[in-house]
Structures are given as C-alpha cells and as structure tokens.
Amino acid sequence: MDDVTIPDFNPEFLRLWIQHIAENNHKTVGELSYIFCSDEYILNINKEHLNHDYYTDIITFNYNEEEVLSGDIFISVDTVATNAEEYGNGVFKDELERVIIHGVLHLIGFNDKTDEDQKEMTLKEDEALELRERFT
To answer: Does 2 map to a domain?
Structure first.
C-alpha cells in the first residue's frame, strides 16, 4: 500500500456507533475492513474496478450476506482532508466520520446516484452524525 498515515480514531466508538446505525436499519455488522489510502491509490482502484477515471473520497465493496453487513471500504485521506475544508466545518475527524458512515449506509442499501438519492443519503449521514455523542 502507499505511504499514508492512518487517521487517529477511537475504534470502540466506531464499533458501537456503526452497530447502532446498522441495527436501526435491521442489519447486523459482520466484517468491515477500512483501508486508508492516498488520492492516487483510490483513483487506481476506481479505474481498475469501477471503470471511473476520477478521484473520490470513498469506494465501498459490498460482501454482505443477507442482513449481515460486510465489506472493504477504501478511504482517501487526501480527499477527506480537502472535503473537510471545502464542504465541511474544516475538522478532519468530522469529515472522516461522515465518510465512514457513508460507506456503511451504502452497505445498508442506500445509494447516491441520483439527486434524490443524494439528498436521502445526506439526510441519513446527518442523522447518524447527530447520534455520535451517545457513543463517546
């Protein structure tokens, strides 16, 4: 993998928070792998596996079995940092948590291909982010 610093986060908080979001959507959490990478690495994944030639903050590979969420979630720390400044509140941790829950929501079954889907996804992200303090 490329030389990327793994972001500082509390794994127990993430486990409890993600488990709660999954259970609220009638799912259980199986094996989730988070791969933190650079823009160039995620661009190569996007080209190779999805035939998309653009940078993104997250790519989620779904390995769900029935109601059990499982998958590989690639996150570009470069794009997360940029998006925190451009679209968020400037706090990397907040944007990282938004991206992490975005991947979980994809595994749950939410999409963001259309404008309507994007609005629903953003609403679900915002709802999940509001629940974070319960798990800290």
So the answer is: no
Structural domain count of the chain: 1
Q: At 121, which CATH number?
A: 3.40.390.30
- Cα separation, 20 vs 31, in Å, equals 15
Annotated binding site: 102, 106, 112
Angle at alpha carbon of residue 9, lines to 3 and 10, rounded to 5°: 140
> What pairing do the DSSP bridges indicate for beta strands 58-62 and 28-37?
unpaired
Tokens of residue 6, six digits: 């793994």
Q: How far apart are CA 11 and CA 4, in angstroms?
A: 18
Q: Which segments are annotated as binding site for Zn(2+)?
A: 102, 106, 112
In a domain, residue 99? The reply is yes
Residue 76 domain boundaries? 12-135
pLDDT tens figures, 39-95: 999 999 999 999 999 999 999 999 999 999 999 999 999 999 999 999 888 899 999
